[in-house]
Amino acid sequence: MSPELTDQIATAFEAGYAGEPAPRPAGAYVALGRRRQRHRRLGLGAAAVSAVGALAVGAGLLVGGGGPDAAPDRAPVAGTPSATATATATGTAPGPPSQRISEVLTPGQHAGYDEAGRVVLRPGWRIERQVANPLRRTAPEASVGLVVVKGTQRYWYLLDHTRTGGGASWDPAGTTYARFEQWLDDQVDLQNGDQPVDLVSFAGAGPVLEPGIGARILRQWPDPDVPGFAAPGDTTAVAKVEVDGLTYFVLARRSGDGATDTIPYQADLLDEPTLAAFLAHARDRYASGEGLR
To answer: Which residues cross the membrane (predicted)?
Structure first.
């Protein structure tokens, strides 16, 4: 195949993948959780790379690297002349400018560290805001929180670069939190392995809820009508909860074997901070197959 044809195919693949949402990664999942929200996370060691290519180790971790499903392209990484806005992480070593984006980013991922610890962006995306080293890595390791934008699209990212691998977690801006700082705080806690603290839990055999540590239940309702949230026979409830000066609606479910799950959603993200608005939003999200996580 000629170099010209290879470049044409690479460009076509890149254009086709650029706007797609990130697929749920393959591999082993570890439910880390957090009292506010579970998020996509990513982490990978060098040995795991050689063994399985891509191992997810979070609530949905995604490894940055080329694979059979990755879209090839020849766009340069950060630090080389380009019309695409890019950024270089402070304190990281320069990397080879010839590394392909498909070797750094997976389809649907817009930003990530290359193997040398430099931030790489897809063509057309730019960094609107960054928080330096939220994971407090020591050089040559690095981390950064990013707000990246392209037109009306805006995403929140936490990037991590370590000697044994690294990773990225991201969400569309404002999906589960009203402020980037809140989202980044929870992502850092998840990466550091903080144990989850539920805002509510079931008080007994019925649907009555009790508050978690630091939380206050403002009101609660049994058996919310949200198709797809729970299996037939599960015990379910929803509560309006206040914690750290913020208000959340929390869906709770308990299966027949006693396993429980709670899903908080910040009330500020709703058009109105009412139960009706929250349930309507939850029904739409479950009907779409996305859910509230």
So the answer is: 42-64
